[in-house]
Amino acid sequence: MQCHQDQEALIPRPRGALPKACAAALFAVTMGVVLFLSPERLFGWVGMVILTLTLGPLLHGVCLLAEEMLYHSNTRYRGRGLLSHVLPACGLGGKTLLAAAMAGLLLYLAGHPLPHEGQCWKLLFLTSVLYALLKSLGVLGPSEVEVSDICEGRKMNVAHGLAWSFYLGYLRLVLPRLEESIAAFSATHQASKLGRGSRKLLILVPLNANISHKLEDEDDRISFFDNLPNNEIDRAGVRGRVYKHSVYRVLDEQKKAHECVVEYATPLLTLYSMSQETSAGFGEPERRQQVLLFYRTLQDILEHSLECRNRYRLILLNDEHEDDPNFLSKALLRHLQQQEKEEFFLPPQQEMGQQFDSSLSAPPSAPPMNGEWHNPEPMSREPTLMFSLERPQPLREPVENTDIYPGRI
User: Fold this and answer.
1) Domain 158-342 is classified in which CATH homologous superfamily?
2) Domain extents for the chain?
3) 305, 334, 348, 359: which is closest to 7 by C-alpha?
4) N or C, fewer C-beta in 10 Å, the chain?
């Protein structure tokens, strides 16, 4: 349980709706103040502000539309319709146009909030044009939090693609065959100590994405034992493509060996290599964030996968414990022990049927089983009603509970 809590403390949660709630609260407070100070000009101010905020993005969308129509209409949109694809892509969608039209109508009906009508229109158009200019120069660009929220919400991060590729191209193919491979391995290796709790694929996800190709190089308490039988699958034109897993032995504090099927998440090699390339623009902070998103995305995918359920275990390795030379073996043993505690045994249906048959065939004089009498044989005749001629008796003898007080009859 401690392992799960440690991992949850590192994994970022999806962003919620707190910014929307804060914005709604600020709007309510501001509207109350304006309504108290100058209620006669409230609707005029609201109409002018909304028209300014919508007209600026519309002007910026027109600037974007010029670039898209001149140079990218064929290559990016493949001749698709102007109204259905190009305009919404430039921010000229129906919602923005409708908001601008409603704001203009409200401003027309409520009247101009400024003393002079000319000042109102000058301020309106000047603000909109400056917004379009500053937006094009990147001054009013989205913040890193907004970009991250958009990428996570639309599944556009590198981590999302790597997680789905790892699942669709590997885990969904090999995990359904894992139990058969372990059974075949145990049949040919009589000295194997693959317990019931170690019959899952342990997938290591280090935060620093630095993967060693041999686990024994990371920890001297870990040693390679053997490979599971190969799985050959026809894949992407390759006949009999080989997929394999490795079995490792992990020693505990008492030098007792525990065997498990363990490997690193291969896509992390891509993240680490990208962080080493200058042209990728992928530094260490971005790599760490992508590793956490990779773990969270892969966990969500596998939890909803019927083919992979109960056949894997994701282990997030925190790089803050690199000073401990046996950190990896301790982490593996901790998860193996947790798996052993989670496992439980159910009697097979065949044994349950035999027990039920034996209980039915027991003679009438058979002694009680576990202190309880069981029906010795099934009913062989139609059920009938039976009446007793004796008078009904109370369930228990009456108990005197009258309070007796001294000096009272």
Assistant:
1) Stimulator of interferon genes protein (3.40.50.12100)
2) 38-141, 158-342
3) 334
4) C
